[in-house]
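Predict the 3D structure for this chain.
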Amino acid sequence: MRPCEDNENAAVVAACHGDVEALARLYERYYAIMVWVAYAVLLDRGLAEDAAQQAFVTACEKLHLRRPDRFGPWLTTICRHTAQDLRRSRRREAALQKGFVSAVQAEPSSDGFDRAVKEAVDHLPLPYREVVVLHYYNGMSYKEIESVLRLSGDRVKGRLARARRWMEAYLAKEGFRRET
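Done. Predicted structure below.
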């Protein structure tokens, strides 16, 4: 076990025993990551922040882990479910109001490429969108993604490769060809 993992495990154990400072350290460590996990589901930064905060509230209410080393993946699962619940709730509200308006509007570049890339990411299946958002939008390394999502390195690399191929095909269909 690496020293940072020891410190994190100690913080999880302390937080489980009511140490507010330890919980604050965990919040600082994971908040931005959870925002990006939620963004991959919701495609809205404000809602993603709400979901991340709610995930921490839920985690605090249920913070009795048998395995402190699983805190990151456990929190990620809570955040993903919170975001999915929020997305379902938003869809129901939109249906009641007779119209769904996308809350995320990327500023298009003059040739529309930026908007097309955002649309390509938005159309990826969730497991692929999640690794793309964590890697490219949040700047997480493959190792960090492995740790947070509890995936093997090969799985992270494979999902990113498939996502890039899918996005390249999507962009080609939209008229943006890869320059060689």
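Residues 71-96 form the longest helix (26 residues).
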